[in-house]
Design a protein that fits this description.
The protein has about 110 residues and is mostly helical. It has five helices and no strands. The chain has helices at about 1-20, 25-35, 40-65, 75-90, 95-105. Helix 3 packs across helix 4 and helix 4 packs antiparallel against helix 5 (about 95-105). It starts with a helix and ends in an 8-residue tail after the last helix. About 10% of the residues are buried.
């Protein structure tokens, strides 16, 4: 039950913050800007940004070798994605802590 309340509270906070940020924004102007966007460049930028995930995962595998053995690829990929998500949502680049916590959930990794 506690998890459901926290999800509902998070949704309410998100909606309030979105309203606060967007209450003076003209939806017609937003739509005009969306139609004028160069979608090819936007997709290319998203693709390049996503391609950094494998490179960062390789870096984490090298940093987090446990007794000479690298940690599994897929869980480290997930930890990297979680870290990026946290960086987008939380202040102070807290994604590093979230990434460390997610990686610590691996059997052979420690949070520290």
């Amino acid at each position: 039950m506690r998890l459901r309340w926290s999800g509902a509270i998070g949704l309410v906070i998100t909606l309030l913050l979105l309203w606060w940020v967007l209450h003076d924004v003209s939806l017609a102007e937003v739509w005009r800007q969306i139609r004028a966007a160069r979608w090819g460049w936007l997709l290319a930028a998203a693709g390049v940004a996503t391609l950094t995930f494998p490179l960062r995962t390789v870096r984490w595998r090298l940093l987090l070798c446990y007794e000479g053995a690298p940690l599994p690829w897929i869980p480290l990929w997930h930890a990297t994605a979680i870290g990026f998500m946290a960086n987008n949502l939380l202040p102070g680049r807290a994604g590093g802590v979230a990434r460390s916590y997610a990686a610590a959930r691996l059997p052979s990794a420690r949070f520290t």
